[in-house]
Design a protein that fits this description.
disordered N terminus; alpha+beta; 12 strands; 12 helices; 3-stranded antiparallel β-sheet; globular; 6-stranded antiparallel β-sheet; Phosphorylase Kinase, domain 1; 2 domains; Aminoglycoside 3'-phosphotransferase, Chain: A, domain 2; 349 residues
């Protein structure tokens, strides 16, 4: 019988226990105990320790994971968790409305990314991953093409910001959120225009066309919860959502997330080692670095919050809306310095 681990603080409900027991039975493993870790389960068995994950849909994602890990292992890239088939040779188990699949358990910790050194080491891992997937056979993978016409997207989003501004200005009564959003809308509109101008004057379309032709694979969710550190090695997990995209978008999203952390605060001197760690393994051209800057600095979150407020009318409390807005605008001035320092870095190349 399955036992809860005393080390786990997340309760496992009886329905979950039943699901886990029946799923693991199809793998032929004898459970000793189980722990819930985020949305997955650490299952300790007589035969070893495994990671059981569930999802409501996405059979092709699991198949992608199996094929991808096998192909990566063939070329010597071992920094991923191996997928495990059921005793009958299936990729996953069906239980009620769920699909469950099993991988080996990597005995490490989520990479906290609190220091520049950690952030740079993880960027190196991403570069190694990008190098590796470039060499594998992807003909059997079913992959979503996530390449976007970013100049067109940015233009549409900037038009939305103009629309949000008109909505606020036409209101008879405006509250604190409206006042604050309106105060910063012109500043961030100009920043969005800078992003657009950088893209329009770059080699964006050529780089994007090349990525589409080569079917360039990206992780799409490369952040601390999907990076494990075991002793001195780093591992990349959760390969279910791989997509075709620009590698500089993969790296750029990672950098943008990190820069919002209080330990980094949009200090380019802390972003530079991250970029250089990636480039050391997988060189980027000056043009690609320009594209990445445009993707990093566009006010994505400000635009999204405006859409939730003025178009979707999300039922958030005023306190929640203000908290989200304050988090977005707190680094606006520092971000200007980041942009200038980044541009100087590119020019010095």
């Amino acid at each position: 019988m399955l036992e809860d681990s005393s080390n786990s603080n997340i309760k496992i409900w009886p329905k979950e226990k039943k699901m886990i027991e029946q799923s693991m039975n199809q793998y032929g493993f004898n459970i000793i105990e189980v722990q819930k870790v985020r949305s997955a389960y650490k299952v300790i068995c007589e035969e070893g320790t495994y990671c059981l994950k569930r999802m409501k849909s996405g059979r092709y994602k699991v198949k992608n994971g199996f094929i991808l890990v096998q192909e990566l292992n063939k070329i010597g890239f071992k920094k991923v968790a191996k997928y495990i088939k059921t005793k009958d040779g299936y990729n996953y188990v069906k239980y009620s409305k769920y699909i469950l699949y099993l991988t080996e358990w990597i005995d490490g910790k989520e990479c906290s990314i609190d220091t520049t050194l950690d952030a740079a080491e993880c960027a190196l891992l991403l570069a190694e991953f990008h190098n590796a997937v470039e060499k594998i056979d992807i003909s059997n993978l079913k992959i979503k093409n996530n390449l976007k016409n970013w100049p067109k997207v940015f233009l549409e989003n900037l038009s939305d910001l103009e629309y949000y501004k008109r909505i606020i200005e036409r209101k008879r009564l405006i509250n604190e959120f409206d006042k604050t959003y309106l105060k910063y809308i012109d500043i961030l509109y100009q920043r969005g225009m800078l992003s657009l101008n950088i893209l329009q004057n770059s080699e964006y379309y050529a780089v994007s066309k090349k990525a589409e032709y080569n079917k360039t694979l990206c992780h799409d969710s490369f952040y601390y919860q999907n990076i494990l550190k075991a002793e001195d090695s780093y591992y990349i997990v959760d390969l279910d959502s791989i997509i075709i995209d620009l590698e500089v978008n993969d790296l750029g999203k990672y950098i943008r997330r990190i820069m919002h952390k209080s330990e980094f605060k949009w200090d380019f001197n802390k972003a530079k080692p991250i970029i250089e760690s990636y480039v050391e393994e997988r060189p980027l051209t000056k043009e690609e670095l320009e594209i990445m800057l445009a993707l990093i600095i566009f006010p994505h979150k400000f635009w999204k919050l405006g859409k939730k407020r003025y178009v979707k009318h999300k039922n958030y409390s005023e306190m929640k809306y203000m908290k989200k807005l304050d988090k977005i605008i707190q680094y606006i001035d520092i971000q200007e310095l980041f942009i200038n320092d980044y541009l100087e870095y590119i020019e010095s190349m």
